[in-house]
Structure prediction request, 389 residues.
Amino acid sequence: MHAYANPTRFLAIARPLTPWLLGLGLALVLAGAWAGLMLVPGDYKQGDTARILYVHVPAAWLGMGGWSALAITGLVQLVWRHPLAGIAARAIAVPGMLFTALCLATGSIWGKPTWGTWWEWDGRMTSMLVLLFLYAGFLALTMEGDGQGRGGSLSRGAAIYALVGAINIPIINRSVVWWNSLHQGPSITLRGSSIDGSLLWPLGLTVLGFTLLFGAIVLMRMRRIIADNRVAARLRRLADDEGA
Amino acid sequence: MKAKHQRLILALVALAGVAGAGVLGASALRDEAAYFRTPEEVAGGHAKVGEPMRLGGMVAAGSLKRLGDGVTIRFVATDGKASVPVEFTGIVPDLFAEKAGMVADGRMRADGVFVADRILAKHDERYMPPQMGDMPKDMKAAAGG
Prediction:
């Protein structure tokens, strides 16, 4: 793993991988959106309203998956001090927060015509809002240094914060099981799916597509941070040479 | 032992501690974080007359009636173990129907009727095409629904 501590080796993989993730992700999202909106029938009870799940579910998955990845980078930073951990953490936090916001927004838009409310403080919605605030806190913690070449490192506090914040992920996941909630229970479990197969397959496309897009965004942001660091290092060297 | 291994063990122990604290906290909240009370809880004495609360349950089949004034409805909320009669004046969401879930804000009246001032519809986790929604349950199971 430490072979990729060298940014050149990491970039040799990340550079060609980025356009593939981006292109394939976009194609899958467009195909899934088209299938979800045009090809499959509406839900027996909610009609066309339920089609928003083709965006809502991937957004929820990436908001939560994003923090899980953030927690892993925190652990890697704390234990192995891997130089890419901090770069990856900063790269993950912004898209993770955006997808969490997208999940909350689409959920709210979905809730009004079905439940009859934009927002309720039930367990699922509250814990998801807490995730949004956790992301905001992480961004605030790691903001200084961004764009000034110090974006590579992750402070011990930020790494611990990422790890401790992960406790919210199982709480979001279990919130509709542990507590009475307005949000319905899980549709897709280990035992199978209560979304009928004829409505389920476009969801597979959008989940995979948005995940690849997320990966592409993370790689692009990591490359930008590495480039920033190199520029800053070169400027420092130039300044030192002139000073000498 | 290498410093790396020490850090790993420390991180894992700390993580287990935090996870334990989280689980304890969540289970302590089990009652408080509930979004609504069930009819069973109401029957078990959880509801005081006149105190604002939220009641959630299924609208019992055949129980939904509109009163003479045209805007007040009455129905029975049930969870299969207990039932509570509910009265509501106003507009309900489109998905509100018999044999479907609902959540009502309101308070118990002295005569045992729950007077709601707002009703939300709850839907379940099943999604299927319209033609399958009309099928009886056993046929849905056979069709994999």
